[in-house]
Specification:
This protein has 337 residues and is mainly alpha-helical. It has 16 helices and no strands. The longest helix is centred in the middle third of the chain and has 28 residues, at 210-237. It is globular and about 55 Å long. Mean pLDDT is 83; it is low at 291-337.
């Protein structure tokens, strides 16, 4: 039976994963100085899938879930996130704003799965949305409004993928994420050729250097293969309620590393937004809620499905996803040169 008490080594591992995912926003920012955003995202999933797909065994869920999550999470969420950051959304702020995915997850779970949020979660959603408003007010001089909007859209797509992942209920997080990583590669490459152009893509590939290669390795193997592998390992040994709170450290590491390596300002207004968002996400994600059908006399949604083994009450496999990383932030002119 999973233990609710984490050993010190497991606490350290959970904090390390949160740090890896937080610093990832800085790494993505660096990568955007080397690659167009859609090509960069395609390369990320290509390297995450190969050669790992030959080592993790056959998929353990139906292909419809792998394809669905691959398109929504890989193509939509990461395509929007990378493009939003390329258009000027700061790395630290993106790591913070992306956490509003917890609100979108709760809303979509209510609409699709019938999971009615309780009062605590409703309060958490309101607090998190207030944090988004404060973050938007403080982002006026630190990035484009379009980039900020695309990061919020990426959070919404992440919420959809969380609901799909919950329905899929993968028994092995690493196996699931590796197979999901095979799906976005071709769609993202096609979109990159169409929207970013073959000349820009070829120039980026011909100019590949050790920094560019290291960035791809980090976002693919460190944040995806190691991050999700370690996160899934912890979830198999401890209840989700004991592991999931560590994901709230992701924006802390993201904002801190962005300030340290990119020189992004951490203003009092941004700290206020961070406090509201993290507090709201904590209430939304961890507060008590009503299971579907709890007071309506109908069976929970997951109990209505055909039996295919034990289904976890809540699968937070995608609760905190790899973000992005970078050092000196290239100017818009340098990126488009």
């Amino acid at each position: 039976m999973p233990s609710a008490r984490l050993a010190p080594a497991h606490v350290a591992l959970a904090a390390l994963v949160a740090a890896v995912w937080g610093v990832n926003f800085v790494v993505i920012e660096i990568g955007l100085g080397h690659f167009p955003p859609l090509l960069f995202s395609a390369l990320r999933f290509l390297v995450a899938a190969l050669p790992a797909v030959f080592l993790v065994g056959r998929p353990k869920v139906a292909w419809k879930w792998i394809v669905g999550v691959g398109l929504v999470l890989g193509v939509a969420k990461f395509g929007l996130l990378f493009t939003g950051m390329d258009l000027g959304a700061p790395a630290g702020l993106s790591s913070l704003v992306l956490q509003v995915q917890a609100v979108f997850t709760a809303l979509f779970a209510f609409a699709v799965l019938g999971e009615r949020p309780g009062r605590v979660r409703m309060l958490g959603m309101a607090v998190a949305l207030a944090g988004i408003g404060v973050a938007a007010a403080g982002a006026g001089g630190s990035g484009s409004a379009t980039g900020f909007a695309l990061v919020i859209a990426a959070a919404a797509c992440w919420g959809v993928s969380n609901v799909l992942t919950r329905r899929a209920a993968p028994p092995d997080a690493l196996n699931f994420m590796v197979w999901v990583s095979t799906v976005p590669v071709l769609p993202l490459l096609a979109l990159s050729l169409l929207l970013e152009g073959p000349d820009r893509d070829l120039a980026a590939l011909r100019g590949l250097d050790w920094t560019g290669a290291g960035v791809i390795v980090y976002v693919a193997w460190i944040t995806t293969v190691f991050g999700f592998g370690a996160w899934g390992w912890l979830l198999r040994r401890h209840p989700a309620s004991s592991v999931a709170p560590f994901s709230l450290l992701v924006p802390v590491f993201g904002m801190s590393s962005a300030a340290l390596f990119l020189g992004e300002p951490v203003t009092p207004l941004r700290w206020c937004a961070a406090a509201l968002l993290v507090g709201g996400v904590a209430l939304t994600s961890l507060g008590p809620g009503h299971a579907p059908g709890e007071s309506s006399g109908r069976a929970p949604v997951h109990a209505q499905r055909e039996s295919s083994g034990p289904v976890p009450e809540r699968n937070p496999v995608a609760r905190a996803e790899p973000a992005t990383v970078s050092f000196p932030r290239p100017t818009g002119e340098e990126r488009r040169a």
